[in-house]
């Protein structure tokens, strides 16, 4: 008797038609999902950039407010301000705030500049009397300074009172 080889069971396999159908379904899914992923990524990137601009502008406004609050007042009641213009304020000791080439600079008493915020589109200071509304050009009458910064589409503003004028 001769032994016949045992028939082997064939492993299940994909047909060409099944493979093409599977590729078509995967292609449709990718075509629908890919634009959503790309758009989400773009929005996330824009949000991160905007948040960084808000953080940087917020820091600059906070630091400018602190600078204004610390402006000394002499015995005659005049703020020790040498120059006060719309775009800068310089104190008697040489320290100050100013916009220079798109950078908001804080100068210390040695005149060394420190960048508070880059890419600044607009920086404005308004000097107000004790009523908080009337502009002044008199050093003795400056009580409040309004600070406005615009950078990369973000606009922030704040008012700062000279601390020695309001009691401490």
Describe this structure in words.
A 5-stranded antiparallel sheet has the order 1-2-3-4-5. A 3-stranded antiparallel sheet has the order 6-7-8, covered by helices on one side. The model has no long low-confidence stretch (mean pLDDT 89). With 168 residues, the protein is α+β, with helices and mostly antiparallel strands. β1 (81-85) and β2 (88-91) form a beta hairpin. The protein contains 1 helix and 8 strands. The chain starts with 15 loop residues before the first helix and ends in a 7-residue tail after the last strand.
In short:
This protein has about 170 residues and is α+β, with helices and mostly antiparallel strands. It has one helix at about 15-70; strands spanning about 80-85, 90, 95-100, 105, 115, 120-130, 145-150, 155-160.
Q: Which structural traits does this protein have?
A:
five-stranded antiparallel beta sheet, rod-shaped, 168 residues, alpha+beta, single chain, three-stranded antiparallel beta sheet
Task: Quote the average pLDDT.
Answer: 89
* Helix and strand run: HEEEEEEEE
Strand residues, percent: 25-35%
Question: What percent of the residues sit in helical stretches (DSSP H or I)?
Answer: 25-40%
State the end-to-end distance.
117 Å
Helix/strand-derived class?
A: alpha+beta
**Number of helices, where a helix is a run of at least 4 consecutive DSSP H or I residues:** 1
The total strand number stands at 8
**Cα-based radius of gyration, to the nearest Å:** 33 Å
What is the number of domains?
Answer: 1
Shape: rod-shaped
Largest sheet: 5 strands, antiparallel
Largest sheet: spatial strand order: 1-2-3-4-5
What ranges have pLDDT less than 50 throughout 5 or more consecutive residues? Answer: none
């Amino acid at each position: 008797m001769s032994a016949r080889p045992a028939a082997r069971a064939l492993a299940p396999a994909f047909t060409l038609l099944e493979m093409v159908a599977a590729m078509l379904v995967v292609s449709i899914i990718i075509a629908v999902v890919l634009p959503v992923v790309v758009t989400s990524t773009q929005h996330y990137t824009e949000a991160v950039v905007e948040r960084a601009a808000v953080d940087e502008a917020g820091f600059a406004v906070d630091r400018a407010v602190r600078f204004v609050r610390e402006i000394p007042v002499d015995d005659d009641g005049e703020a020790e301000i040498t120059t006060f213009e719309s775009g800068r304020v310089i104190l008697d000791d040489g320290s100050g705030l100013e916009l220079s080439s798109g950078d908001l600079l804080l100068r210390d008493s040695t005149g060394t500049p420190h960048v508070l915020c880059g890419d600044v589109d607009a920086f404005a200071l308004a000097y107000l009397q004790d009523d908080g509304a009337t502009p002044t050009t008199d050093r003795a009458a400056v009580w409040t300074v309004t600070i406005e910064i615009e950078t990369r589409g973000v606009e922030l503003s704040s008012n700062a009172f000279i601390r020695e004028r309001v009691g401490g």
